[in-house]
Amino acid sequence: MSTTIIYLAYLVASCLFILGIKGLTRPRTAVRGNQLSALGMFIAVVVTLFDQSILSYEWIIAGVLLGGTIGAVMATKIQVTSMPQMVAMLNGFGGGASLFIALANFIDPQSATHTVALVSIAATVIIGAVTLSGSFVAFAKLQELISGNPIKVPGNKVLNALLLISAIGLAIAIVMDPSNTNLIYALVAVSLVLGLLLVVPIGGADMPVVIALLNSYSGIAAATTGFITGNTVLIISGSLVGASGIILTQIMCKAMNRSLFNVLFGVMAEGGETIDADEVYAGKVTSSSPEEVAMLLETAERVVIVPGYGLAMAQAQHAVRELASIMEARGTQVLYAIHPVAGRMPGHMNVLLAEAEVPYEQLIEMDEINPQFEQTDVAIVIGANDVTNPMAREDKGSPIYGMPILNVDKAKTVVVVKRSLSPGFAGLPNPLFAMDNTLMLFGDGKKAIVELTQSLKEAD
Amino acid sequence: MEILLLLTLFVVAVFLGVEMITKVPPTLHTPLMSGSNAISGISLVGALLSAGSGGGILVNVLGFIAVVLATINVVGGYMVTNRMLAMFKRK
Question: What Gene Ontology terms describe what this protein does at the molecular function level (chain A) (predicted)?
Answer without folding.
Answer: NADP binding; oxidoreductase activity; proton-translocating NAD(P)+ transhydrogenase activity
